[in-house]
Amino acid sequence: xxxxxxxxxxxxxxxxxxxxxxxxxxxxxxxxxxxxxxxxxxxxxxxxxxxxxxxxxxxxxxxxxxxxxxxxxxxxxxxxxxxxxxxxxxxxxxxxxxxxxxxxxxxxxxxxxxxxxxxxxxxxxxxxxxxxxxxxxxxxxxxxxxxxxxxxxxxxxxxxxxxxxxxxxxxxxxxxxxxxxxxxxxxxxxxxxxxxxxxxxxxxxxxxxxxxxxxxxxxxxxxxxxxxxxxxxxxxxxxxxxxxxxxxxxxxxxxxxxxxxxxxxxxxxxxxxxxxxxxxxxxxxxxxxxxxxxxxxxxxxxxxxxxxxxxxxxxxxxxxxxxxxxxxxxxxxxxxxxxxxxxxxxxxxxxxxxxxxxxxxxxxxxxxxxxxxxxxxxxxxxxxxxxxxxxxxxxxxxxxxxxxxx
Length: 406
Prior knowledge:
By secondary structure, this protein is of the alpha/beta class.
């Protein structure tokens, strides 16, 4: 029979309550509100996890705010959440690298009585009682010597030693007193060598902030058992998830087969999530008639709308971003040999003399339809041409020349 734990606590970090999720350059309808709400909905799941698990404490191990001045809405949100969990007897320990983070708290928002603040630059310590057990929390920069105090609640029992490492650039810690649990804001490879890996814990972030981060938002539920044994379980907290559906084309793939793959991959991604909303970008690579066809932005827009309609009114909600296309070397070689007007355009575009010039002269594009592609200026920035304009011009030309029917 497994004995009940002495106490539980939730370890979270990087709540960033003053920072919304980042938007793609093209914002789908409905995504704006999700980008604002997602960090707070994810943080809700952190506090709810503590209530559901009957935890005694929530440890916010750095990154609660990102800016120099805590936002009014972020501070008021944190105050409300502290009041919410206080009704369940849960303490909130907020640790930051510097005491300055706490001095900037808005003076017109009352500090919750169950909110305990510890600053790493003060080598801070606090002794708490959680579930009848003494818990000594120590906070300091990632290079400080962890020295536990001799203060205990019971002369015969030492407290559970919890160390929070703040900062990420300092040398690894050299613990003088062996902690039972070491919390970090982010993983730091150097610290693993100094402290056993099973004692070093990073909770990640409850809500990733951009389409370039498809990680799962999470916090850690920690159970402390007899002899101060520690068990952890990762709790998913993402309110908004980004995913990329990868599809590789070749000459054997037809249009209906591609559509089935697209719907199947999207369906798998959405159903495997506990988030409230999923943002999916489809990335098509390879060669063949399907890739040739999806070079047209209008064709992609129809597919994206098709996916949105398929999931309309369902949970979780689905939003699709603009489809990206990456032809492989086989497709590139075919375009170079193609006798069509599109092939002529591709060759002309790729043969533009660039050299070491800072700008590219687009006036040398002589294909008739390229007049419709001409920007306001015929000389464009060379890095911009290399990184995005060349690809956009190819796709716009495919649309103008009706590439799907060539």
